[in-house]
Structures are given as structure tokens and as C-alpha cells.
Write a structure and sequence with these properties.
heterodimer; A: mainly beta; six-stranded mixed β-sheet; three-stranded antiparallel β-sheet; B: mainly beta; seven-stranded mixed β-sheet; four-stranded antiparallel β-sheet; 11 strands; about 0% helix
Chain lengths: ~110, ~120
């Protein structure tokens, strides 16, 4: 299966909203509600931010939200803060109980 | 929240077998799905595969012929073997636990990661 497509970079000033897209096909993103989003700071393990398209694990700030339309999932950071600067990866169920990650997006807080 | 810790050799020779173990503490491995993920230096994440505590497994099709994941419930750990390694297998290897007992593909708990370099 091919990696899901994400924009290489995204940016916003503190307090602005930043949205990252994750585009797949009807065989992965479009076909299942098992879409997750991870935040990764340099040298650190990824952290789960969103699961099952729009659910937030305990402890994740509510400024992080997820959605899906067709074959594209999105992560929105509303009121972005300096500590949100990181790499973000989406992942999705891709049929036959296998999973695939996105290409990753580097988010910069200006 | 459980704690996970990867361990194993940091250097493996080409054509040999990479072997890693993930120790689980703060909870029982006898529930949930347990995964291996890797990340080549400066690159993105790649899903390797997962195992259920019952022993059922699923692997990335691109790696399936070279990968084996096993679980040892008596030691509360699971392991990864990758055979016939090449430089392309050089990566930070992470172990992780699914956020849902029924399996959702979302990893809520992660190990710190361990760098494995393939070089002679």
C-alpha cells in the first residue's frame, strides 16, 4: 500500500488555526474510520493526538481536532501555540487489517 | 498507561537478522494489540506489523517475507525479527500499544525508540 499524502509543511502565527490534510483512497482513508494523527517532536517518540477520525485521547488539548471528508482526513490546530511546532503524521486502516502512515507534515509556528 | 522499552543490538551486519524486544511494564500484555513501527533517519514513519496477545499477527506486505513478531506473555514482552537486513533497514525502531482493546490502529503508548544501524 502507498503512503498517505500530506503537505510537506504548514505554518501559522500564534493564535491562528492551522489545518493539515491527509489524502488517501477509498481503500484506506475513505473506507474506514480508523484514522489517527500523531505529533512528533525532534528526537522523541510520536504522541497520539487523534484517533478514530475525531476522538481525542485523555490529556490532549481541545485545540486539536480531526475530521474526514471522502478520501481526505484533516487535523486542525485552533489557536496554535509555540509548543505545537512539530512533525505531524496521519495513519489509516488500509484494509485486510493493515495500516499505513502519511508522509508527514512539518508545522512551523511563525 | 503502560511503559514500553525496546532493547537489542544497535548494530547489525548486512544479511544478518535484526532482533529487538519490547518489555511492557505497568500493565499486562494479555490484552490489546502490540505494534512495531520504524523511522529511517530524517524520514517518515513506517508500520511494520502488530501482534495480539493471543498470538495472531499482521504484517506490512512490503516486509512480510522478512518479518516475524512474537509475544511472550510469561515475560510480558513481545519481539521483532527482521531477516536478511540491508542498509535500508537502518532506522529507529519503536514498539507501541493500541489505544483500544479491540484494535483501532492508533498507538497511545510508545517506547522511546532504539536506533538500529545496518553496517559491516
Amino acid at each position: 500500500q502507498s503512503a498517505l499524502t500530506q503537505p510537506p509543511s504548514a505554518s501559522g502565527s500564534p493564535g491562528q488555526s492551522v489545518t493539515i490534510s491527509c489524502t488517501g483512497t477509498s481503500s484506506d482513508v475513505g473506507g474506514y474510520n480508523h484514522v489517527s494523527w500523531y505529533q512528533q517532536h525532534p528526537g522523541k517518540a510520536p504522541k497520539l493526538m487523534i484517533y478514530e477520525v475525531s476522538k481525542r485521547p485523555s490529556g490532549v488539548p481541545d485545540r486539536f481536532s480531526g475530521s474526514k471528508s471522502g478520501n481526505t482526513a484533516s487535523l486542525t490546530v485552533s489557536g496554535i501555540q509555540a509548543e505545537d511546532e512539530a512533525d505531524y503524521y496521519c495513519s489509516s486502516h488500509a484494509g485486510s487489517s493493515i495500516y499505513v502512515f502519511g508522509t508527514g507534515t512539518k508545522v512551523t509556528v511563525l | 498507561q503502560v511503559q514500553l522499552q525496546e532493547s537489542g543490538p544497535g548494530l547489525v551486519k548486512p544479511s544478518e537478522t535484526l532482533s529487538l524486544t519490547c518489555d511492557v511494564s505497568g500493565g499486562s500484555i494479555s490484552s490489546y494489540y502490540w505494534s512495531w513501527i520504524r523511522q529511517p533517519p530524517g524520514k517518515g514513519l513506517e508500520w511494520i506489523g502488530y501482534i495480539h496477545y493471543s498470538g495472531s499477527t499482521k504484517y506490512n506486505p512490503s516486509l512480510q517475507s522478512r518479518v516475524t513478531i512474537l509475544v511472550d506473555t510469561s515475560k510480558n514482552q513481545f519481539s521483532l525479527k527482521v531477516t536478511s537486513v540491508t542498509a535500508a533497514d537502518t532506522a529507529v525502531y519503536y514498539c507501541g500499544r493500541d489505544s483500544q482493546p479491540r484494535g483501532s490502529g492508533s498507538l497511545e503508548d510508545w517506547g522511546q525508540g532504539t536506533l538500529v544501524t545496518v553496517s559491516s
